[in-house]
Amino acid sequence: MGSGQEGARAIADIIVGKQSPSGRLTLSIPKNAGAVPYFYNHKLKSGGTPIAYHFGSKYNFGYGLTYTDFAYKNMQIENKQVSIEDGVIRVSVELENIGNRSGCEVVQLYVKDKLCSLVRPIRELKGFQRVELAAGASTTVVFELPVDMLNFTNAAHQRIVEAGEFDIMIGKSATNILFTQTVDVIGDNRVLPQYWKMICHSYHR
Fold it and tell me: What is the tens place of the pLDDT at every residue in 23-33?
């Protein structure tokens, strides 16, 4: 697909430094043809498991560069125990542009189900927030992740959420995870209704 009539101008602006690049990969680029297919959200012992050097991905899902640097600090989770019925996992992290020019960062929220009745992916993207910051500026990025989004489909083709521990991760990409904390989802395993909460709201302040 072409970049449109303004595509060349946009590329030129990035090359000469008028604009800072801010794109992120929506797929992983394998290290070697022998690693194809590679998925960032693979399961253990499936495609992408790094059992040899040539497996895996150097440029992974969510990867991207810019002309400045960003520092992350002080990840916080409001409650480490949430209800399986209507719980919301509220996560915050402080972000600062520590470079000498303005730029854009994409803060990414990943989840891993630590113990499940089915084999689950090693990580799954659940939310992201794009943040524009001037040099030296800082902000707090907040995610509000509904427990409903921790679901999977069981052998009976039901969309369910199981109680238990989940790793909540903040990172710059699928393989550049900066912080990990664990949340305990409490209650009885539940089958989701037809209309479930499927949006992770995010903002910065």
Answer: 898 988 887 77
